[in-house]
Amino acid sequence: MKNGKKSFILIEVILAALVIVLSFVMVRGRSGKDFDKISVIIENSDDNQWSALKYGIKMAAKDQGVEVFFSSTAGDFTAGKLKNTIENELNNGADAIIVQPVSAPGIEKLLKKMEKKIPIMLVENNVEENKDSCVFSVTQADNYAMGIALAEELLKDYSGNIEGKTLGIISKSEHSEAARNRELGFKDGIKRTGARVGWSVSDFSGKEKENFLANQSKVNIVIALDDDSLTTAGEYAASNNFHGAFVYGIGNSTEAIHYLDIGILECLLVPDEFSVGYQSLTEISKRLKCYFYKMQSKMVSYDIIRREELFSKENQEILFTMSQ
Amino acid sequence: MKNKYFRRLKRLKPRGIQSTIMLAFSVISFSIMLILGTVMYIRFSALSRQEIIQSTQKLMEQTGDNLEDYLLSMRRISDAVYYNVVKENDFSSQNKDIQKGMNLLYEANRDNLRSIAIYNSYGSLIAAEPVALQKEDPDVTRQEWYKGAMNKMENMYFSTPHIQNLFYDGTYRYYWVISLSRVVEITDNRESKTGVLLVDMDYSGISRMLNQINTLNNGQYYYLCDSNGKIIYHLRQMQISDGIFSENSEVAAKYKDGVYDETFDGERRKVIVNTISYTGWKLVGVIPYSTFTDGMINMRYFIAMIMLLMAMMLVFINRVVSVRISRPILKLNDSVMEYEAGEKPEIYIGGFLEIRHLGYSIQRSYEQIDTLMKKIVLEQNERRKSELDALQSQINPHFLYNALDSITWMVEGERNDDAVFMISQLAKLFRISLSKGRTVITIKDELQHAESYMNIQKVRYKNAFSIIFDVESSIYSYCTVKLILQPILENAINYGVSSMDDCGEIKVIGREEDGIVTLSVEDNGIGMSEEEVSFLLTDSNRVPKHGSGIGLVNVNNRIQILFGKEYGISVKSEPDEGTTVSIRIPAVPYTEDNRKSLEKGYIFWQERKER
């Protein structure tokens, strides 16, 4: 009799506990799960060159079911600016951050500090010290390979003979790891060809760009190693003809495409920015979904575009991502 | 093997009626509940699935209509340009009118249009709106829309989305357009020539329309492809190009309008196809089966909640019902069990009619059994008593013969005093033996009887042994069965001390301790072996060598009939050392009531004691 009573109370208690658990699950389900919020911090965020990257991030956010916010940034990044922006995003409730790091002292320390609070994924550029320690995951194009490929395209146009040609190299920042690798790749590519680098300019900004290039000596070929440099070179070449120099470069904006389309550029290398965006966000959202997931660094591909193939099916897709 | 399972099942089988009722009710009610829940769930999920498919079909029909309207409006623009502007004017002389007409149409539809252009059969631009700088060498004859129009001279041609590669507008932008092209007849200098009229629709118009219906996050989506399965719009267009995602568009393009089941990339899904008229484009809605399942999660929770609450209620109801049914039976059972345990409770009578009847019957049966038991015990006691009385009566002739023989010898030898003493002792002995037919007498009388007997025997055996009575006077007034010492003393004489020369000693000791009276007869005679001792109280059929033949077994039986099994005789003996026979009886004060109840037997005496 007593055992029966005990069993009855036990069964009722278990059932009541199940009802409570189920109610909790139902209420939680009804109130809706909050999406993870991922902030994206890229230099000069409204710049046209980030269209494909943003599109890739947005598409991945849709696929992964996360919310994504693009932090509004203008002008060149400094360590201080980047720190403030990251802190602002943290205060705004970001669960993870995708950031394009700047090449400035103390950045790695800052990022390491932030990384303890939330997951961080680097895009476009690595921080110098991270190469060995691999604290952060990086999604970027193979910059060295792009430098080499650019040199190969140049050599192709000259049937492999550029002996005696002078080159001018433009790069936005000589300090950034990406720019250094591209330059290194390119220089390795033209090694022992007899070509000479007449000048190499970097770290230009604002209105000085035009003067900066006008003051350079005449060269046969101008190599622009990033989108900013390429559009600057294209703009200058469109108005001043660059003293007849041929322009080759790496870029990822419709402006760069336009200069290729109108014949100012000879050859354009386009990093797959859609994939940079898509893969970086996919990795970081996997990390958010599983605490123990170890984010992987990703190396994305690039495309070589010539004017005559600009509107091929494959290239139209690149243009599609840039036009979003 | 089968038996093993049956054994296990048997072990699981509940023992109590309440558990059985509860289990049976629970199994039945839970089975019904589970069946109902499952049927409900299947029914609801089928309805919900049907509803999702129907709403998707409706949405697709609506979107298809919107797309058709959009494309129709483009065709109307193309018709208007052709029939109202191109056909009505000569390009050599009325260029301005043509431009004006095209401008009007463009401005009226600029939200959906990217450009309107007319090319001649060599691919040279004749007119365009908005006026823009034409690219150096777009070579339109190699472009898909141009070739498409030329291949379909009589019809309009709709291209798939592509980058417009015709004009520079100074914004560094590249536009994603769908081209509507047709071969037109143009009049140039009164000469009729063929040309191609191009209306570039802004792709964003179509993508906006489809983006609006692609807002669900449950895995359901819609895409648009041409009749060859080439994607026109897809939510994951770039992922498909990059190989991250794949779409079964080539198969879907071959479907007629309707709902289809397919498995693609290991995923089961419903595919709804709606054809856009004129273009042959297919608007495809994809509903993965996981969407149906996800949609049913709330319903699952709801049904589970209802089932849990019902289970709680059913457990409670089952408990109440089973308790109500089983309580009278359990109470009846408890009272019967108590009865069986030796208690005398009232048999429970209550609950349902049948159980009350059962209670009455059991109670009556027990009462009858009780009465019968008492009757049997009484009869048994009477029978035994009569047997014992017969045994008791056996002493008399033998003993009387010896005593009278001794008296005769005394009278003949003129020992008159001794003869008088013998006769008076004999008289006392018979007085106590008779005791008015009572079986229970006082210990004092029993001792008197023993003393008289020993006095007679001493004369007979010429004082060959001595007798000592060491009895506490406090036990004199307790009850005892009569004539229990005499057979023991007789044995002590016959087997213990009779053969000894003047040194035989018999001692009668009486003590009381913890409500138990012990009467012991010790002798220093020849004693017995252990084997002989064990026979004394078990073998009633032994033929005695000496004496009256009333063995210790009889004495023991008589004590146990009146006082109970825990009382009786114990014997200790050592060969050549002597024998001690102890009688254990309860210390019951001698009263008339005690005597009567003891004489009925120990059951009645105990009953009286309890009362």
TrEMBL record, chain A:
Residues 38-282 form the Periplasmic binding protein domain. It holds the Pfam family Peripla_BP_4. GO terms for molecular function: carbohydrate binding. The keyword Signal applies. One of its GO terms (cellular component) is cell envelope. The keyword Signal applies. It is found in: Cell envelope. Its main location: other. InterPro entries: Peripla_BP_I (IPR028082), SBP_2_dom (IPR025997). PANTHER family: D-ALLOSE-BINDING PERIPLASMIC PROTEIN-RELATED. This is Sugar ABC transporter substrate-binding protein.
TrEMBL record, chain B:
Its EC number is 2.7.13.3. InterPro entries: Bact_2-comp_sensor_kinase, dCache_1, HATPase_C_sf, HATPase_dom, His_kinase_dom, Sig_transdc_His_kin-like_C, Sig_transdc_His_kin_internal. It is an enzyme of class 2 (transferase). The chain crosses the membrane at residues 21-42, 301-321. CDD domains: PDC2_MCP_like (cd12912). Keywords: Cell membrane, Kinase, Membrane, Transferase, Transmembrane, Transmembrane helix, Two-component regulatory system. It comes from the Bacteria. It is found in: Cell membrane. The keyword Transmembrane helix applies. It is a multi-pass membrane protein. It catalyses: ATP + protein L-histidine = ADP + protein N-phospho-L-histidine. Pfam families: dCache_1, HATPase_c, His_kinase. This is histidine kinase. It comes from Velocimicrobium porci.
